[in-house]
Known about the structure:
Number of strands: 0
Shape: elongated
Amino acid sequence: MRKKKKGRADRNYKFTKKKHSVSAAAALFLSFLPLALFIYAVSLSYMKNGQAPEKIGCVGIASMIAAVLTLRVSIREARKENVIKKVPVTGAVLSVLMLAGWTAVYVLGWIAA
């Protein structure tokens, strides 16, 4: 069979007036801070054999609140029209992963206590 020659219409060009949402970009940026705090808290707890101070618990609760807020903003921005969806979806996925991680840490802490 003969190969079809790629014409102008076959290329992956996309001309659109969609823009990146500033709020979604801020939510994505802010979702990395609780992720860094999560890594810090888990590593500190591991180094102290699970006997981390109360500060780590406060960091965890603050990070969970930040994850919920960034998830809310990301979902709100993803529902808007004329917005590129990659940034808010990435922020939402990262926020859900952080919430799952913190929930696992707290549940494992309650089971072990």
